[in-house]
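Hi P.,

Sorry for the delay on this. The queue was packed all week, but I finally got your sequence through. Input first:
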Amino acid sequence: MSPALRIAIRYLFSPKSHSAVNVISAVSVAGVAVATAAIIVVLSVFNGFHGLIATRLGVLDPPVKIVAADGKVIENADSLAAAVSGLPGIRSVAVTLEERALAVMDGRQAPVRIKGVPVETYDSVTGLSSAVIAGEAWSDYYPGISPAVLGVGAANALLAPVGSERLVGLYVPRRKGRINPAVPMAAFRADSVAVSAVFSVNQPEYDADYVYVPLPLARRLLQYTVQGSAVEVMPAPGVSDVDAARAIASAVGPRYDVLDRAGQQSGAFQIVNMEKWTGFMLLAFILIIASFNIISSMSLLIIEKEDNTRTLKALGASPGLIRRIYAVQGWLVSIAGGVAGMVLGGMDQTRRRLIATLAHGLSCRIPSRRPYPCHDACGSCWRCHCRFCRQTRCINTVSSLH
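Then the structure:
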């Protein structure tokens, strides 16, 4: 141990003739500790937000999505899907077709976004069935009529009951052919679907107006044959989304954009990262200000130890050694505050409770849409399926629709 470090440690723990020196030193350590703990907690919370967003997006967003670099649809979607499915590290592939439409039921109308998906294989790519809150996804209860899975917002807008004989009409403008102005309805193509299930993922962009239908119906309605809006991919176990996206991008070439989950929802992740680093910079600035207290405590300590300094000089200590003694003591105070802050902010139980509470508040207590009536006797209750409460709650919503 060097003489400067040994003397600095002795000065740090030795009693002072003036109690104000001890108080200011303690305040310096506490300021650094609190600022360090705040930085750790804030970064942990934003990392929890990042994980929460990724978890919520993982329900209906595929791990990897291929879209056309130019244009609205992929012209050879089926061939592209077959080629991608043959790549190593790919478990399953699904072609989807998405478009705006008008949904009509018993005189009620709602603008919706229909998404055609392959019914038999789509659950291997996303977790649509796990998000169902009423009914059974793709239940073929109405012979001859294609089933549909509605978002809770579309279901409430249409007052659409699950398993009813009443059908939902879907209308889209014709893409091809001539239009007769004398017959306005001839400008639209129409088909009907039976509501087999209602889903909710507590994401407004999905819950508000999405209607999932079988891919053949969507293609027939939109006058497509082998085209698709996207090819959605599920990597094999052990293969990350990023690695799968890189492999697919190198295989399909520049004609297609290959997006992982972060690329599909880049806006949400960018906002979280921006807030995270803005908070970090503000707290780092506070930490710098708190560190100036150390300068004050060192100034008082130099005055306190003036007699000791003269003694050291008389014993042959060089000015450089004396400067190193007080510099090392300043570092010791800073390190003590930083270690205390890391211990305080790094307590797993505190971080987990805070992040769990915030995640619960985002995913459970503030539903994105009005709850959908269930089959219970009151006709206006809904169940929270989150891992925090798993409660059944009764809310004054639409009365029983069945």
